[in-house]
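Weekly modeling sync, notes
Attendees: S.R. (lead), two postdocs, one rotation student

Agenda item 3: backlog of single-chain predictions. S.R. asked that every request posted to the team notebook include the full sequence so nobody has to chase files. The rotation student volunteered to paste the first one in as an example of the format we agreed on. Action items at the bottom.

Example entry:
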Amino acid sequence: MSHRVVVRPAEAELDVLEGEDLFTAARRLGYRWPTVCGGKGTCRTCFVEVDEGAEHCSPVGPLEREGIQALRQPVDGRTRLACQLRVAGPVTVTRRGVRRRVQE
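Predicted structure, as returned to the notebook:
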């Protein structure tokens, strides 16, 4: 089973597998996602703003909470780390810099 996540402004439509985080899904589907730590939850570079579907997002865990607070954002479900975010329904997020990888 998968769930659709739309990433604005690129309008990328990602089918995120059950239990898969958004960052991993994007990489699997051929997208480059801004990161420094490669999805370990430590750099906080992969953050997104949830525009729609917050009710379908996984709860914020301790590592993600620490990262969101370090970004000086409220832990209200709107700012999330893509490497920690799992979805259980349709979600729309905003994250600049997400692009299809160039095929070699």
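Discussion: group reviewed the output briefly. The two ends are 30 Å apart (CA to CA).
Action items: rotation student to repeat for the remaining queue; S.R. to check formatting next week.
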